[in-house]
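ARCHIVE CARD
CATEGORY: sequence design from structure
SOURCE FIELD: tokenized fold
FIELD CONTENT:
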């Protein structure tokens, strides 16, 4: 039976997670576009208790494709209204060069290796590959960004109120993530007083974020209504905010928060953008039709610029100044809703130059540190670079010239950042794009690669291996699915029909406006846990034939909060909860539905950082935890005490796992290095030392996506399964490592070579790039592999339509 606060409901025939905008005031001024219409969530409920939806997918007739390698399993059309013919589930697909699939014969070298030994495609055996595409994740759009030059960190706020921090020194790894909140809209971010991060939004508060405990630390009311803009001076000692009531207010950054200093001249209409003069003596404020330059000392308006003055009266309409920059030379640069980038002499109040970059709005603007280059983002998804260049060769006179256009987004580019070596843009399509400046890059390599980040660098999928269930984490609800199955056999590369369709078992909605931090499902599928900023929830799931019921576990200890990562033991008897200050709580799961706090593990040295990664051993004796300071601590679960600390490395840990038979800890870092640490011996293994002595392949180290998950083949102790967003790799420790002269190629390409050529390319890395973008991959058992993909086209189909652009011939 279900609990009183849960209810089993039939699954709707059309299930879609729409793109939902942040709450905005009634009189919000936005570009005139259809993409800004807020879409109500079809499953939103007025009552506060969690909702559970039980459903079973209706049966469908399996369809076959003429191309066996590209064919996929059918799926109920109602689950994908945008692409009804795109099936997101495949029970068996080829895994090129890794050894086959569900009861498939291995071809070529793989078959020869099976007869005689070590062929290039050998070793993984036969697999049933479940290709899952029904995880309807739609990343929230990027609203604003702020770059901290000294620490090389980028802070990013999304339209759902979530804040992310990317460490550029750690190869662009997303090292911090603060989940969003329904009532929190972040319109501006800035770094101040070193590494302190502040945000402001339509709630009217200035919020400081605690980057150690991953939560908003404190908030101060701006007393001016919704805050549309915020900027810090060069010293980071003052914050200026632009408010709904037309006021500009100054706050001092003090230990423990911010303190109100003074009001500057008030105007009519909201202040949409702000920029400090590098000297800190003046502020430029942009609004509707006007730019004002304010004297910080007196608080008076020193200059007023009419941005709409040169527009003919017949064409005049409101001109919204969306972004502004104040240069040390006294030049004020603005971008507006007419698609113009204008350069002003603020002392004379005159227009120096104007460039129309788009027929739609120019929404964002950023300047380089040397003030010789700017980047502009538009509502058409394009970004443009302007450079200050000499009029003639050898001339001292310089002018701003538009030099480089880029089209990496499909929707509004709401935020841009200009670093010394790259142009960074974020749009409502959810993508973070890092475009390197080739003239600033010293050599071709990792820093010269174009990067696009759409999916988060953290776990959103949990797998119950024994029960063959998948738990998907959304911002405010969870979905539990059962994988399909087949009873057919076929040839190598053939797609098999499913005898049992995948089933949508549960939809569990979170209570309140807070977004979900983390979640997990036990290996047996009988326990589900998730946490928000203020609540921890544990549920007991009971399976009775084709029916399912769920009951909330009462009496969960309050000391378990905050929880940043959850993991169940392999026997489903204990739950590990990562908390702040490097601590990990161990909770025993009791039948028929209860829990008991056993112990809290803490590092011996002490840390203020939260734990963000966990790994437990299959025998239940060891637990590894990684905190925000990148230290890896290993604990003994037999004695509940600290066992050892892995030597600290200079990069962030992106994934780790403990081998089920050897109890060796395998660690991947953000610089793509791989280490193996023996927990019983408290030292690196011989294989790990050999890897560091010989070095990994150059192309492996130049990959631009971190490893996010590690698994092991239970039949072969030397094989390790790794994956990032763009590739799936099987690392065979029994084979030699490739040197830089060896081709590190996709295994589908390798299979096209002749037998002698394949044997010459034999090495430890077997890479498959068939599954993209890859959110999750794991081995259910020695014969079954599951992959979870989220195609970019599926995400784009869920977004509102972009700005209509004319194309040639239409």
């Amino acid at each position: 039976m279900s609990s009183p606060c849960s209810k089993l409901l039939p699954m709707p025939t059309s299930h879609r997670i729409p793109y939902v905008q942040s709450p905005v005031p009634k009189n919000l001024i936005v570009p005139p576009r259809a993409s800004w219409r807020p879409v109500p969530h079809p499953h939103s409920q007025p009552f506060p208790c969690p909702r559970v939806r039980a459903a079973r997918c209706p049966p469908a007739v399996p369809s076959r494709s003429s191309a066996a390698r590209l064919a996929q399993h059918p799926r109920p059309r109602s689950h994908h209204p945008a692409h009804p013919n795109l099936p997101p589930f495949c029970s068996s697909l080829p895994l090129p060069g890794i050894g086959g699939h569900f009861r498939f014969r291995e071809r070529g070298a793989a078959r020869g290796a099976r007869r005689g030994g070590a062929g290039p495609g050998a070793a993984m055996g036969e697999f049933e590959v479940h290709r899952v595409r029904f995880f309807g994740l739609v990343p929230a759009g990027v609203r604003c960004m702020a770059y901290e030059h000294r620490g090389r960190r980028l802070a990013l706020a999304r339209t759902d109120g979530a804040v992310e921090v990317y460490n550029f020194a750690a190869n662009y790894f997303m090292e911090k993530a603060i989940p969003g909140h329904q009532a929190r809209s972040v319109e501006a971010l800035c770094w101040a007083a070193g590494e302190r991060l502040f945000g402001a939004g339509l709630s009217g508060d200035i919020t400081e974020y605690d980057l150690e405990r991953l939560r908003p630390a404190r908030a101060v009311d701006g007393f001016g209504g919704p805050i549309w803009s915020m900027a810090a001076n060069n010293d980071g000692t003052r914050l200026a905010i632009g408010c709904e009531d037309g006021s500009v207010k100054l706050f001092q950054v003090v230990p423990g928060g911010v303190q109100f200093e003074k009001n500057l001249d008030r105007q009519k209409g909201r202040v949409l953008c702000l920029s400090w003069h590098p000297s800190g003596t003046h502020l430029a404020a942009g609004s509707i039709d006007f730019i004002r330059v304010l004297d910080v000392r007196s608080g008076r308006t020193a200059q007023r610029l009419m941005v709409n003055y040169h527009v003919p009266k017949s064409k005049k309409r409101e001109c919204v100044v969306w972004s502004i920059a104040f240069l040390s030379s006294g030049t004020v640069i603005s971008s507006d809703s007419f698609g113009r980038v204008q350069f002003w002499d603020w002392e004379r109040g005159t227009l120096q130059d104007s460039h129309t970059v788009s027929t739609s709005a120019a929404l964002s603007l950023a300047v380089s540190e040397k003030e010789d280059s700017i980047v502009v983002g538009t509502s058409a998804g394009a970004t443009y670079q302007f450079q200050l260049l000499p009029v003639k060769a050898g001339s001292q006179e310089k002018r701003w010239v538009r030099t480089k256009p880029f089209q990496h987004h499909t929707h509004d580019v709401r935020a841009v950042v200009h670093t010394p070596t790259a142009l960074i843009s974020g749009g409502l399509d959810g993508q973070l794009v890092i475009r390197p400046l080739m003239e600033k890059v010293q050599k071709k390599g990792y820093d010269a690669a174009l990067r696009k980040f759409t999916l988060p660098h953290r776990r959103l999928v949990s797998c119950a291996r024994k029960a063959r269930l998948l738990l998907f984490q959304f911002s405010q609800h969870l979905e539990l699915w059962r994988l399909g199955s087949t009873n057919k056999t076929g040839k190598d590369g053939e797609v098999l029909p499913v005898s049992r369709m995948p089933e949508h078992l549960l939809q569990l909605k979170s209570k309140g406006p807070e977004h979900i931090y983390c979640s997990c499902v036990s290996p047996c599928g009988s326990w589900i846990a998730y946490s928000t900023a203020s609540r921890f929830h544990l549920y007991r799931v009971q399976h009775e034939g084709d029916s399912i019921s769920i009951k909330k576990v009462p009496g969960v200890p309050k000391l378990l909060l905050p929880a940043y990562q959850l993991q169940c033991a392999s026997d489903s008897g204990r739950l590990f909860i990562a908390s702040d200050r490097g601590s990990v709580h161990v909770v025993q799961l009791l039948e028929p539905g209860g829990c008991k706090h056993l112990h809290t593990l803490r590092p011996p040295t002490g840390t203020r950082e939260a734990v963000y990664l966990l790994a437990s051993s299959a025998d239940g004796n060891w637990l590894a935890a990684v905190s925000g300071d990148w230290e890896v601590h290993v604990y003994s679960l037999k004695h509940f005490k600290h066992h050892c600390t892995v030597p600290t490395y200079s990069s962030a840990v992106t994934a780790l796992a403990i081998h089920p038979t050897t109890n060796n800890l395998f660690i991947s870092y953000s610089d793509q290095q791989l280490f193996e640490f023996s927990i019983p011996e408290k030292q690196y293994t011989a294989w790990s030392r050999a890897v560091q002595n010989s070095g990994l392949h150059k192309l492996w180290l130049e990959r631009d996506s971190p490893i996010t998950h590690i698994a092991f083949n239970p039949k072969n102790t030397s094989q390790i399964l790794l994956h990032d967003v763009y590739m799936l790799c099987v690392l065979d420790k029994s084979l030699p490592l490739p040197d830089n002269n060896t081709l590190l190629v996709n295994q589908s390409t390798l299979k096209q070579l002749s037998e002698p050529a394949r044997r010459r390319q034999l090495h430890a890395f077997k890479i498959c790039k068939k599954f993209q973008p890859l959110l999750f991959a794991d081995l259910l058992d020695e014969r079954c592999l599951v992959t979870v993909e989220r195609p970019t086209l599926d995400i784009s189909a869920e977004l509102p339509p972009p700005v209509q652009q004319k194309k040639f011939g239409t």
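CARD ANNOTATION: The longest helix spans residues 108-116. Confidence is low (pLDDT under 50) at residues 1-124.
SHELF: design records, drawer C
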